[in-house]
Amino acid sequence: MLYFIYIKFFSSLVGAMLGSFANVLIYRLPREESLLTPGSHCPHCEKKIPFYLNIPVLSFLLLKGKCHFCTKEIPRSYFWIELISLTVAFFWAPSFITAYSLYEFFFKMTVFVSFLSIIIIDLKHHIIPNEINLYLGMIFLMQGIFFKSYSFYLYGFLIGFLLPASVAGFFYWRRKVMGLGGGDIKLYAVLGLILGPYGIMMNIFFSCFLGAIIGLILMYTHKIQRETHLPFGPAIIFVAFFQLFFPDAITFLSSLLFRF
To answer: How far apart are CA 254 and CA 241, in angstroms?
Structure first.
């Protein structure tokens, strides 16, 4: 029992730290700032935050959501991202410590944090940073090399890149408008490495379907205009999340849509 508690505790701690790093990615990558320097600092007064005031989740609660130096409010999103990551790590904590269980835990958690960062950055800034796509591409390629056939990840990558790029190019040729951003195309490509040819085609279908429904709802409720550009990354990530971590849900949905 004590062994189980230790695993849950340290897994949650790792999750909170990864959530804190996600906040760094979300804040700095769109501004093209270094991830290493300067150290953590207040976004208002820019004073360096000492390590004892930089404890994920706990520091926000103890400081009541305010900077220790200038007393201005710290964005609540920092707290929620750390808490969400901590919670996910708690439930994904391995039952027993083995080399494979540790690898699986860190793989799942870093993918989750990358997905979460992409969603928030794309919603805020309408970009998907190359750095996150590159990281996902590397770990998905490693996963493919060790656990899949070369045709699985190679064909998945090619379909994930060529199909969306062809559609985007045709759309631009016909209407002179970018229907899909370069970051979205790269994201499809790297997801093809882990989803394979069939999986990435399913992702393209379901993400487009989901994006269209959301767009129609927002236009119907007059939240956006027809010409408004909607970030598409969250739809891609939402579908990929269920494909990777809850594949039965996608299989069930596919059976409902395509049984006729």
So the answer is: 15
- Identify whether 130 is part of a domain: no
On whether residue 260 sits in a domain, the answer given is: yes
Question: 151: which 2 tokens?
Answer: 């045709």
CB 55 within 8 A of CB 30: no
Angle between helices 233-245 and 99-125 (to 10 degrees): 160
- Same domain, yes or no: 11 and 89: yes
Distances (CA, A) of 152 to 140, 147, 162, 231: 12, 10, 16, 29
Give residue-wise pLDDT tens across range 183-237. 999 999 999 999 999 999 999 999 999 999 998 998 888 788 877 778 999 999 9
Angle, CA of 10, 13 and 15, to the nearest 5°: 115
The partner residues of 73 in beta bridges, in order of sequence, read 66
Do 1 and 111 lie in one domain? The reply is yes
For the chain, what is the domain count? Answer: 2
**Is 88 a member of any domain?**
yes
Token code pair at residue 85: 């990551």
Sequence letter at residue 31: R
pTM over the 0.85 mark: yes
Q: Is residue 139 part of a domain?
A: no
